[in-house]
Amino acid sequence: SNSVDSAAMSHLAAVCSGRSSTIHLKKIDLRHCSMNGEQEAKPLASIVASAHLTSLILDGNIGFGNLGLSAFAAALPEECTSMTRFSVADCRLEPGCAVALGQLVHKLPKLDELHLEYNSLRNSDVEVLLEELSSHHLQHLHLSKNQLDDGALDSLRRFLSARRPLFLSVCRSLFCSFGQAGAVPPCYIYIHGNRMSEAVLDSIARQRLCSNDRVYQGARYVAQNRVHERSVSSLVQNYGGNFHNFASNSMMSSVGGYLRDDSHLVYIDLDGCHISDDGIRMLNNGGLRHNKCLQYLSVSNNCIHLLGFVTLLEAIVTGLPALRAVAVNDNPVFDNVEMSGALYTSCLQLLGQCSRLILLHLTATCMSDRVGSDIVKSLLTDKSRLVWLKMGNNELASETVTTLCVAMEHTTTLQYFSLDSNHLSDKDVQLLLNS
Q1: First vs last Cα of the chain: how many Å apart?
Q2: What is the chain's Cα-based Rg?
Q3: 222, 241 contact by CB (below 8 A)
Q4: What ranges make up the beta strands (E) of 198-295?
Q5: Which residues of 347-361 are buried (b: 16+ CB within 10 A; e: fewer)?
Q6: How far apart are CA 226 and CA 95, in angstroms?
């Protein structure tokens, strides 16, 4: 966030060029550096070529624009195989920049991420860019906050069809497809904050882009948009759900209804959806416990207390045979647990029966040191298959550490655990290291 002029850029380019065998820069971040695109573009391209750069970030340089992008793309040598990430978000890219973008991705065959957010790209620009990307291995294309509307649908649909998706998720916020094994790799196209209409959402939600029976119904992002429950229901029914900052208790029955036996949903993210214990109950009664395919469930950043957590554990123990990962971070699950009595005892018993789980996230759940010790003792038994346990940002201390060290003698699967932002002393840390 300084002012970088052409002289400084040329000096850096000369240094990199003269020491190309010894300088291996991985990332250059020049965000908000008041760059004048045309003047700095040529030495910048030289740096990319000679320094084996993998990541270049130019966000917020509003003087860069179409001219800077064109000059940079033209100055790049062919086949810059080291670059995997290029970001020109908020760089005043205007309509007509697609030719330069096409030239850029052609010269960067290993590019994995292309960030074009907060510019003024139109449907025609995206159409030209997607044609260039049809045989490219790009995996993340960010087009959020541009000027796309329903007219972009056809080119997006053609692109996704060409990528032969097995796992498709399309809505106002996100287009993505997972390629078949051995084919073109997965591609995510982020388009939230544009001008897609609700009619287009419904159209996309009802359309299957491939007839393969192994189609997985995946994540659904509707962040930063306002769509009616009818559209959300249509999207969930076809593709699954991710409802950051959108859903509520009242929608949980509707969401749960699509999770019954015939649903192929493998992933659902309900983070930040204002769900309470009642919401978990409605989700469970709606159909969650009958689902046979769900593998990952996240309900972080809600208002779930011990009752809701126990309801969730009951669903895991009595159903959900495919579920392997659960995240309940940032919920007051264990707040005032000493008042819970039998409910807390039931919670510990159910945790001991969750032997199919391989990942459990309980970060920031108001866990005291005693509660942490009880949970570790219940979870990490000789029957446990848990690989990853996160318990950070709680009130854990020596009692939990002591129990964890003893438990690790009985479990053979645990590979990762997180106790960051707790109250561990130097002695506790040494005890863990010794274990």
Answers
A1: 45
A2: 25
A3: no
A4: 216-217, 241-242, 267-269
A5: beebbbebeebbebb
A6: 27
Rounding to the nearest 10 degrees, give the CA dihedral for residues 278, 281, 283, 287. -160
Alpha helices in 287-416 (DSSP H): 306-318, 342-352, 369-379, 398-407
Q: How many residues does the chain have?
A: 435
- When pLDDT is averaged across residues 81-94 and rounded to a whole number, the result is 89
Asked if 386 and 360 touch (Cβ cutoff 8 Å), the reply is: yes
Tokens of 258: 């699509």
pTM over 0.70: no
What is the token pair recorded at 202?
């419904």
Which residue do the tokens 């991985």 mark? 26
Cα–Cα dist 54/48, whole Å:
8
Inter-CA distances, 397 with 129, 235, 290, 386, Å: 54, 45, 38, 21
Q: Which helix (H) or strand (E) holds 230?
A: helix 229-239
3-state SS record for 34-89:
CCCHHHHHHHHHHHHHHCCCCEEECCCCCCCHHHHHHHHHHHCCCCCCCCCEEECC
Structure tokens that stand for 175 in this block = 């287009």
Residue with more model confidence, 267 or 394? 394
Residues of the chain above pLDDT 90, percent: 29
Measuring CA to CA, how many Å separate 119 from each of 36, 115, 249, 426?
17, 10, 36, 50
Q: Decide: residue 416, CB within 10 A, 0-12 exposed, 13-18 middle, 19+ buried.
A: exposed
Q: Tell me if 228 sits within 8 A of 198, measured CB to CB.
A: yes
Neighbours of 168 (CB within 10 A): 23
State the Cα angle at 419 between 413 and 420, rounded to 5°: 140
Q: Closest by alpha carbon to 90, among 145, 19, 163, 49?
A: 145
